């Protein structure tokens, strides 16, 4: 899901672009096998994480995902290595696959009417697209979010797909669901977002809904609830919803079933 803040000069952007396209050039996020040592990101995995930090950070990630922590701005400094290890290795992919499997299991129980109104709503950032390449050069969530630099990353339109989500997306299409994309990105990012989705392998969405001028300053829960209500008012039945933030899923006009993807990098209210 999209946060809001950034900045960056052209020289820094060029450096960011070169480093990201070199290390993360594929259109689908590459998660390293546990026994692979070929990547510099994997070598960081073997930086020793103290046992007490590992236990603390694993518990911190659990309460974050359960939404027990409440609003938070940055990951704890002692958890940078832990979060880096999590989002660049098998555990993140396995957790995402488990969510996709549960989503698909539910989707197969839905009696799709065939009238074009059976809907599934997806968030985009950290749900369909991964911004791990961006956070890899911005402290894996340990730095204060900068909207300008993130906007420049979005403009590159090179965020890879989350493999589990891409699989789920394609299978929902085959089951007959109409897919709407509901993101916290703004209208001026429509072109870059569409380009990135195409690059990552997504297509045939029914709606791509972005924040307009009237949505400025609205909490994500309110904004997304209002947009879901508009879909319902048009006759859509929202059977499922997928997002990495609770604000993607909660509020009103909620889906019949909502599915939370893992994200220990940031929080959006």
Automatic annotation (TrEMBL):
This protein's record includes keyword Amino-acid biosynthesis: no
SUPFAM superfamilies, sorted: HAD-like
GO MF entries: acid phosphatase activity
Record's keyword terms, sorted: Glycoprotein, Signal
Residues of the signal peptide: 1-23
UniProt-listed InterPro entries: Acid_phosphat_B-like (IPR005519), Acid_phosphatase_pln (IPR010028), APS1/VSP (IPR014403), HAD-like_sf (IPR036412), HAD_sf (IPR023214)
Pfam families: Acid_phosphat_B
Family: Belongs to the APS1/VSP family.
Descriptive protein name: Acid phosphatase 1 isoform X2
Gene name of the encoded protein: LOC113695327
């Amino acid at each position: 899901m999209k946060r809001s803040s950034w900045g960056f000069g052209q020289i820094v952007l060029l450096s960011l672009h070169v480093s990201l396209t070199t290390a993360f050039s594929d259109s689908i996020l590459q998660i390293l096998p546990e026994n692979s040592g070929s990547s510099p990101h994997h070598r960081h995995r073997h930086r020793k994480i103290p046992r007490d930090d590992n236990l603390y950070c694993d518990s911190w990630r659990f309460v974050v995902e359960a939404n027990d922590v409440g609003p938070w701005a940055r990951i704890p400094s002692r958890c940078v290595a832990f979060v880096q290890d999590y989002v660049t290795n098998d555990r993140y992919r396995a957790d995402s696959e488990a969510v996709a499997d549960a989503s698909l299991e539910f989707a197969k129980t839905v009696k799709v009417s065939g009238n074009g109104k059976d809907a599934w709503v997806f968030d985009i950032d950290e749900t369909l697209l991964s911004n791990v390449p961006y956070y890899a050069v911005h402290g894996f969530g340990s730095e204060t979010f900068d909207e300008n630099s993130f906007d420049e990353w979005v403009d590159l339109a090179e965020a890879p797909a989350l493999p589990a989500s891409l699989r789920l997306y394609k299978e929902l299409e085959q089951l007959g669901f109409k897919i709407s994309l509901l993101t916290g990105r703004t209208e001026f990012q429509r072109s870059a977002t569409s380009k990135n989705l195409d690059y990552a392998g997504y297509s045939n969405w029914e709606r791509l809904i972005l924040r307009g001028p009237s949505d400025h300053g609205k909490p994500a829960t309110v904004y997304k609830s209002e947009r879901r209500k508009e879909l319902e008012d048009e006759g859509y039945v929202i059977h499922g919803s997928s997002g990495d933030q609770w604000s993607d899923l909660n509020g009103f006009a909620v889906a019949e079933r909502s599915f939370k993807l893992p994200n220990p990098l940031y929080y959006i209210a």
